[in-house]
């Protein structure tokens, strides 16, 4: 329990500051077979002819068995050549893993022939940000140490209730319980055709081994009844006979996230699961770890096949962790070759990678099987290590490039007589050369962050393989978020400074436009001055919001809606509010407010949000007569807000007046001063300023000044024409031709069908115009002319149905004029 790492009870990292890996604790200072160079993807296969000749030991004259072996070697050379070609193709793809992949259909070609791909540009930008963050990772990272146990075992489809402690817990007394436990199995089931095709036993056997491991780790002897010493399963992934399972100490579970698994089959036909790899990746605190358990091609002579299987698993293993997780990894500075901008990561995109399993590399065939057996049994290992195929292939750069492996200090782990500690030499069995098939390697972005404390094997003997295990002292990152965000902001500030020099920039003299009080039938315009303050041409345009198709609300107009400015140039954009009858009706009924936001987009730049607001000065124009008769107060004093209006007035009472007071005032003024006015209601328009002032008097209750009768007449017709609901709706139009015989019936029916308030207004208006006609000698009005005026003011312009023809509509309106003429000329209504 006194070894370096976490204490099981406290679950605290040991602060390492700047670890001194020159003299690490424990046994990890042993010789490590480490090829030179930084960790990286597998390199292309290089044939033996391209490499310096290795010194060969003197050979004795070949025996008969050796001659047979040489013949087998020659027979397999053609197959070997084909597998080498496969490795070349696979590894060549892997060396291109840093290429930016962008959709070429997104290429944009400008008029001068330049090509820009926004997807590629974004990925390159993100990769630059990542490199800057990674270069400064020490500014926001504190390093802590922990222990990772890796175990691998080819169980040869055997195993019942044997004790696993000598494999999983052998070094707990020396180094303490590990913080992460990873176990890999090969041949959980027989690799026969049925099991490979349907995996009918794999799930059952994988659960058996997961349960066995959990029971061993969490036994009473190991936990002493303390829940802080227990282990929690994170993930298990199986493929036919392969299984990888990851456990973590319970106190660390909350600091593990983004756990993902994958499997790659490279067996029969290059895809089946009798050979391949299963893997699990995760984020442990703020370091990313990847564990890969593989079973590679068998047979002593098939070195190229194993190399090809490794390259295949390496290139095809990827984890779709999601864009959010990728962005977090970027900010942690934890990816070695990130430049894809995708949501997936590969093997090399992890801080630490552990690769283990039955890799099936043997002792080179240049040493006879009998001698390999003899040296293995005597535990004389130097010659065997020198001729170990994996060591040779790694030294030549053909496989496991960038990976490290500890020294082989234990006897070869294959092939044993099951149930014994004897190598397989029974006469009825094929004689095989012992080999270190079962291996554990690792790769780290920071080589000093992984140190091997031990590398050995267990003596559990029910399989023809011995289990292999290794404990590692690992340095884990624990990011200080505030400091990381500070570094990130500094990097982005630097980037923004340079990017802004190449981007268009403009200034707006204001972005909030308050139009103040806006009145009916009034146009109010305010300008915005836009100035190009950048060093390149600036193009701008207004764009709709979200799914809208219009740039702004109907009561607002903008001109111009687009433009281009050279550096230093300025332009005015005019925004105009107009309150027409439709808008006034919506404002009066609280279905609209004078409030909008416009988006001004700078091409290849940012968006600017322009806020437009105003206050509607309520007017009787655009309202209905049914609502106007409710209020005795001037309409300007009636709140637009329905809640405030309900608090001030009892809207459930009967109408306060028979007709709107505004209508009475304007008719009374004309009656008093203008019935004899020449060309009244025809020919002469009112003065626009007087029309505006008269409307204000109606809305505010102010007394009329000495206004022109023609201005008064224009306000009257405008008031009647712009009611939100016409006095005579389309439903009251006569639907058949009117003549002298039926006109009396139509007029009676017309009045009976009218609603009370429109009825009062209609009678009041007809009575007024009948009085006007009594002065026809002076004002030169005729009943027919007044009938046409009434038809345009009181009658709805909408058709009764969309199918109604223009001729039919004109006929019905003509019938209405006859009715109005009848009402004007008859002695009584």
Sheet-strand content, in percent, reads 15-25%
Biggest β-sheet: count, sense, barrel? 7 strands, mixed
Average pLDDT, rounded to a whole number, is 82
SSE class: alpha+beta
Give the distance, in angstroms, between the N- and C-terminal Cα atoms: 112 Å
Number of helices: 25
Number of strands: 27
How would the global form be characterised?
elongated
Rg from Cα = 46 Å
Return residue spans where pLDDT drops below 50 for at least 5 consecutive residues.
Answer: 1-61, 75-98, 799-803
Tell me the helix content: 25-40%
Describe what you observe in this structure:
The chain is of the alpha+beta class. It has 25 helices and 27 strands. The strands form seven sheets. Strands 1, 5, 6, 7, 8, 17 and 18 form a seven-stranded mixed sheet that branches. A five-stranded mixed sheet has the order 9-10-11-14-16. The chain has a five-stranded mixed sheet with strand order 20-27-26-22-24, with no helix packed on it. Helix 18 packs antiparallel against helix 20 (709-721), helix 19 packs across helix 20 (709-721) and helix 20 packs across helix 24 (783-794). The protein is elongated and about 140 Å long.
Question: Which keywords apply here?
Answer:
single chain; about 850 residues; alpha+beta; 7-stranded mixed sheet; 27 strands; about 20% strand; elongated; disordered N terminus
């Amino acid at each position: 329990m006194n070894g370096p790492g976490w204490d099981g009870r406290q679950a605290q990292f040991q602060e390492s500051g700047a670890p001194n890996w020159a003299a690490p604790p424990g046994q990890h200072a042993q010789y490590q077979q480490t090829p030179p160079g930084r960790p990286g993807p597998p390199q292309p296969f290089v044939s033996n002819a391209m490499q310096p000749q290795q010194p060969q030991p003197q050979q004795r004259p070949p025996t008969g068995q050796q001659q047979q072996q040489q013949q087998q070697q020659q027979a397999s050379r053609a197959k070997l050549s084909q597998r080498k070609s496969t490795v070349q193709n696979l590894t060549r793809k892997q060396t291109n893993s840093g290429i930016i992949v962008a959709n070429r259909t997104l290429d944009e070609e400008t008029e001068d022939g330049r090509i820009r791909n926004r997807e590629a540009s974004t990925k390159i930008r993100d990769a630059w940000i990542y490199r800057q963050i990674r270069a400064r990772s020490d500014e926001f990272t504190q390093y802590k140490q922990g222990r990772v146990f890796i175990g691998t075992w080819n169980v040869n489809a055997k195993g019942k209730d044997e004790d696993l402690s000598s494999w999983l817990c052998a070094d707990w007394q020396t180094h303490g319980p590990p913080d992460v436990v990873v176990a890999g199995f090969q041949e959980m089931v027989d690799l026969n055709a049925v099991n490979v095709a349907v995996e009918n036993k794999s799930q059952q056997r994988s659960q058996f081994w997961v349960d066995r491991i959990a029971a061993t780790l969490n036994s009473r002897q190991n936990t002493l009844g303390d829940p802080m010493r227990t282990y929690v399963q994170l993930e298990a992934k199986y493929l036919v006979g392969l299984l990888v399972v990851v456990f973590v100490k319970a106190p660390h579970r909350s600091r593990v996230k983004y756990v993902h698994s994958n499997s790659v089959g490279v067996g029969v036909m290059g895809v089946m699961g009798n050979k391949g790899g299963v893997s699990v990746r995760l984020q442990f605190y703020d370091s990313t770890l990847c564990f890969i358990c593989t079973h590679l091609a068998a047979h002593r002579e098939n070195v190229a096949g194993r190399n090809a299987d490794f390259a295949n698993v390496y290139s095809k293993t990827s984890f779709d962790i999601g864009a959010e997780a990728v962005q977090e990894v970027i900010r942690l500075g934890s990816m070695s070759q990130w430049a894809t901008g995708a949501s997936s990561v590969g093997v090399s995109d992890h801080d630490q990678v552990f690769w283990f399993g039955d890799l099936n590399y043997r002792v080179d065939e240049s040493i006879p099987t009998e001698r390999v057996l003899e040296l293995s049994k005597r535990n004389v290992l130097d010659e065997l290590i020198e001729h170990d195929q994996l060591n040779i292939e790694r030294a030549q750069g053909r496989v496991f490039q960038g990976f490290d492996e500890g020294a082989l200090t234990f006897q070869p782990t294959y092939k044993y007589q099951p149930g014994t500690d004897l190598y397989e030499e029974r006469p009825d069995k094929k004689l095989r050369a012992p080999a270190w098939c079962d291996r554990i390697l690792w790769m780290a972005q920071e080589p000093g962050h992984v140190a091997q404390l031990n590398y050995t094997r267990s003596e559990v003997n029910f399989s023809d393989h011995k289990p292999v295990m290794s404990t590692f002292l690992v340095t884990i990152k624990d990011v200080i978020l505030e400091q990381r965000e500070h570094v990130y902001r500094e990097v982005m500030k630097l980037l923004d400074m340079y990017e802004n020099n190449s981007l268009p920039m403009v200034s707006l003299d204001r972005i909030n436009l308050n139009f103040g009080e806006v009145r009916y039938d009034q146009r109010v315009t305010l300008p915005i001055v836009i100035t190009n303050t950048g060093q390149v041409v600036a193009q701008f345009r207004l764009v709709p919001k979200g799914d809208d198709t219009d740039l702004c609300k109907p009561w607002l107009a903008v001109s111009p809606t687009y433009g281009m400015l050279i550096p230093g140039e300025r332009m005015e954009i005019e925004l105009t509010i107009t309150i027409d009858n439709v808008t006034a009706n919506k404002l009066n009924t609280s279905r609209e407010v004078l409030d909008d936001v416009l988006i001004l987009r700078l091409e290849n730049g940012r968006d600017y949000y322009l806020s437009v607001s105003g206050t509607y000065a309520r007017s009787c124009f655009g309202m209905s007569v049914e609502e106007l008769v409710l209020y005795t107060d001037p309409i300007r004093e009636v709140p637009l807000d329905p809640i405030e209006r309900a608090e001030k007035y009892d809207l459930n009472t009967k109408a306060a007046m028979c007709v709107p007071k505004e209508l009475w005032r304007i008719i009374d003024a004309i009656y008093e001063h203008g019935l004899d006015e020449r060309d009244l209601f025809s020919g002469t328009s009112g003065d626009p300023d007087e029309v505006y002032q008269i409307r204000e008097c109606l809305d505010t209750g102010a007394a009329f000044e000495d206004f022109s009768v023609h201005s008064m007449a224009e306000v009257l017709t405008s008031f009647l024409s712009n009611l939100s609901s016409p006095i005579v709706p389309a439903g009251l139009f006569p639907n058949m031709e009117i003549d002298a015989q039926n006109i009396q019936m139509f007029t009676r029916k017309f009045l009976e069908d009218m609603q009370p308030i429109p009825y009062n207004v209609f009678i009041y208006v007809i009575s007024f115009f009948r009085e006007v006609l009594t002065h026809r000698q002076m004002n030169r009005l005729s009943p027919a002319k007044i009938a046409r005026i009434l038809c345009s003011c009181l009658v709805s312009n909408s058709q009764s149905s969309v199918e109604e023809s223009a001729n039919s509509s004109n006929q019905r309106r003509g019938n209405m004029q006859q009715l109005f003429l009848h009402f004007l000329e008859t002695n009584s209504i």
